[in-house]
Amino acid sequence: xxxxxSVDGLITPAHEARVSVLDNGFTFGDAVYETLRxxxxxxxxxxxxxxxLRASAARLGIAIPLADGELTARLDALxxxxxxxxxxIRFVVSRGVGDISYHFERVQGPTIVMVxxxxxxxxxxxxxxxxxxxxVDVRRNHPTALDPAIKSCNLLNNILAMRAAQTAGAIEAxxxxxxxxxxxxxxxxxxxVRGGQVLTPPLGAGILAGITREVLFELAPGVEVTIHExxxxxxxxxxxxxxxxxxxxxxxxxxxxxxxxxxxxxQPGPVTLKLLDAFQRHAPSEAL
Length: 288
Ligand SMILES: Cc1ncc(COP(=O)(O)O)c(C=O)c1O
What we know:
Blueprint: E1 4-7, E2 10-13, H1 24-28, E3 31-39, E4 42-43, H2 46-59, H3 68-82, E5 87-94, E6 111-118, H4 125-129, E7 131-135, H5 156-167, E8 172-176, E9 182-185, E10 189-194, E11 197-200, H6 211-219, E12 227-229, H7 234-238, E13 242-247, E14 251-258, E15 261-262, H8 270-282
Parallel strand pairs: 7-8, 7-14, 11-12
Antiparallel strand pairs: 1-2, 1-6, 3-4, 3-5, 5-6, 8-9, 10-11, 10-13, 13-14, 14-15
């Protein structure tokens, strides 16, 4: 079981890997990241994740000097070293090593880190019983302040929300935007099912463009399900027939409780399970 890291291409056991205390990722949270997982030992949707990583970095003015092929070669070497049946993969790109100042011209970088560890499958009960989420008071960052479309290592908004959700006995926090609409989970996108139709907040709600969300939009027509983007209010979730979360690590997780309220029948619904099955059939084909 391997927990290994690559720091600028140097592979070591993860607990021996080191980044400078002057790294802007540490001193300012001035970094971006991606979370991936493998299917059959190969990373899922790597090209999509690298595209989003570069888009996040570009929003912060961080240039990633390596081509996708070079990043992939580093990741392949790390996965080979770790020898996990399935891996969780974290990419982090920080602006680099600075001097704890806003003098960005002094920063030497970027720092390019990859970490892999054994992938932990969600509990089987998620599929059979669903999960409980909590509608928290913490609002999602306003896009004009810190755009949630940037997958940045500044995760305090998510941490505050997750701490509130965990205190409420939930596995995920659902955050509203400043308009009081449902934005997204602290680490997932949100979907509701109403009258057989699947609805999810548009990117304009101030969310991360989830890759699982994107893949689901592509897959749904093949199983005769239509997904539409629509602004959603809390009552749309609370009164839904079904609801679910999507993320790379969770795939699709049926939401059967929002705080103390049961959603629909209180059991994972047929549309959710149909999409989950379709996703699980498809995902290995995007892991190359
Ligand atoms: C805030 C947020 N929204 C949505 C997602 C889901 O994105 P993806 O499907 O690409 O994992 C994540 C995943 O980490 C996230 O952190």
